[in-house]
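Can anyone check this?
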Amino acid sequence: MSIPADPEAHVRAVLAGLGVAHEIVPCDPGLADTAAFCEAYGFAAEDSANTIVVEGRAEPPVRVACVVLASTRLDVNNVVRRRLGVRKASFASAEATRDLTGMAIGGVTAIGLPAGLPVWIDAAVMARPRVILGGGSRSCKVLIAPDLLTTLPGVEVVEGLANPIA
């Protein structure tokens, strides 16, 4: 899997190539983490989608990028673990995420991920009229209709991938 030297520029190029409606939302890098971003820029958690890399402990390791609403919690220990076919799965560290995607936490997005990395999207994401995702760096986000995500390679919509936060 090749990693782009400039992930934000790569995300913008992928979006341009898709020719789909989207908006780039500039953001203070210090406010790129979901809760701070939503509060500062007026987005609801249920309209914010996080892309989270999960590693299944296997030899060789298996990885997947999961897209879930910020108002939900990814079901790593049940759904993700079973779907990966491993006994143990966990969130990838910030370093492992950057090594795999080239993107820093707070900017990770399903758009423009390396070829061969599967992307699972919680079905609840698809029910939103629009979602805001990472933009490839901590300096911007991407506002899209979630249908755009299904045009990306390696994407699968998964029912029950995440659960509402109680």
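Reply from J.R.: I decoded it. Residues 95 and 104 are 8 Å apart (CA to CA).
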